[in-house]
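Lab notebook: predicted structure, single chain.

Context: the supervisor wants predicted structures on file for every construct in the current expression panel, including those that have not yet been purified. This is the next one on the list. No modifications to the sequence; it matches the entry in the shared construct table.
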Amino acid sequence: MLSPFTPEPERLLSDFESLRALRGWEPTFLHSLRLRALRVFADTGFPTPRLESWRFTNVRRIAETEWSTPPAPGAVPEEAVAPWLIEPAHHLLLVDGQAAPDRETVQAPLPEGVTVVSLAEAVERWPSQVSHHLGRHAELDGRGFVALNTALHRDGAVLLIPPGTHLEQPVQLMFLASPGAAGTMCFPRVLVVVGEGARATVVESYVGHDGSYLVCPVTEIVLESGSTLDHYTVQRQAPESSHVAALHVHQSEDSRLRTHTVTLGGGLVRNELTVVLEGAGGEAAADGLYLTAASQHVDTYTTIRHAAPNCTSNQLFKGILDDHSRAVFTGRVVVEPGAQGTNAYQSNRNLLLSDHALAHSNPQLEIRADDVRCTHGSTVGRHDADALFYLRTRGLDREAAESLLTYAFASEVVGRLTLDAVHDLVEASIHERIDRGPRTGGSV
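Prediction complete. Output recorded below exactly as produced.
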């Protein structure tokens, strides 16, 4: 195990060189990318609430913790993996951010030309393909956690889908935090390239056992012209853990993206989504659901950048907050000059089940073109008093009426989860949360 990680600039290079020695040889492009990211982090450091984009989220606890790098993973027992596997699917398993040696792939035969491997293997076997995309879309400047991931990632996953391929079964990239992950940090890196006219479904699953640890994944997705991707991120980390994730998508002309972010666990959570529509006629649909309780803090920050004409984006994010939990949503829609014919919609709605829960909602529009249609809306509130009264007049007690309204609130997002395995998992989690019993403080 490496020495504890510290964010002090004078220690960064030492930590980096120790990690380099542990990794062994790597291509020049990757070493140069790591060094550039290291310099960016040394200059900017961890984000603070003084930054507008981090105004409601304080990562001081992460910055002041002396994290260690987890050792190489050993054998993974079946019972630790089986509950989280999606079937039928192609699977790639990583433990504490590294490929599991005994069961890296558990998958049915892949179509010809499709590649699903660990990042370490992809860098060794196809360095030119990886270098063409890795680090090209996830911006470093002003993004400390992305810079840290770029500098210090040890492994990850690469999915390459050749042009015209229709991948019938989903690909599940499962990232497991082991029982020994307490006190450690890991930086999984994911690269997905969907070739021209290809179609695929990808599920990123992040699950963990008890303990305080840091998981900081960065995913880069490239959609070439006419391609279609249905993408899911499902996070169910330990309550004491920190999960700071960034997803960056680059879309070419006439490409189609549907991305779904489901947050069910973690103590301190930050989900960043950046989509750049760089080709005319592209479509991006992003939705999310976060269920918070106890003292959880979940921050969602999205940026949809329309950089080409006649593109469409649609965002719907909903939160159900209980106990003393907190949620933050900031949604930016940016329309660049020349992106005429843009159609963009954004909505964030939060349901408070407790008098002590708190949600901040900040929709933002930046429009630099004149032929556009852009709308946004946000709400934060309790159960609708009229709907609650109506259900109670039909014989439901207060708790049953609140439970029914809570599920109805979430159903709009759940209904968009067209992959049955993910839909069933999220639906079960909602019922589990509803069945907790009376909340702190009654509804209106």
